[in-house]
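[Amino acid chain]
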Amino acid sequence: MTQNFGQDPQNVTHTNMHTGQVGQQMNHGGHEAFDVHEVLSTMIGAMDMSTLMRPHAQDPELIDIMDRQYRFMQQSYNTLVDCFKSGTDPQMPTQSYKMAGGNDWVYGMKQSQPKKPMQSPQELNDAAISGFLLSGHKAGATACTAAALETTNPVVRRVLADSVPNCIEMAYELSIYQNKHHYYQVPQLAEQDMQAIMNAYAPAGSQGGMQ
């Protein structure tokens, strides 16, 4: 996904108005460097959290999700490090994360105990673990999006942009897992209210252009 940009990056010339020609390895703006640093730190944080939580997970389904997602995150991290250091196409292009399960949701609310911060490590459970991992993917999606918007290197920008839907997909998988076990409940509006909102917009005109 990250390769084939229509030109050989090695033959592209970049110029710094103060120092002259810029090599491909240094084809990064200052803002980009700080933002990618933030993304890589966020990725490490998510993987470290998964490593720490893995021995405490109980549900085999959650453990399977954690293991598959960790392998994918590790590959994504290595791809970004590769292209950020070289400024060129990474040896391993970005892949698309695929969930193992379906996308069925249970809507509605049922009575449950109010949530509150844990008072001791013994309270750690699958609900908390899946929540920690979900937060890591949300942070990753936000960081990759912000960095991609400020990135000048075309390869790094594409790797960051390709990473956003993967973060979303992994977060979605964990959300479905939480919903299935009633850790995350999804309320719905009354049908007439939902219909009112859904019908509040109409298609734009088909003529095209502004008059």
Remarks:
- Strands lie at 14-16, 20-22.
- The longest helix spans residues 60-86.
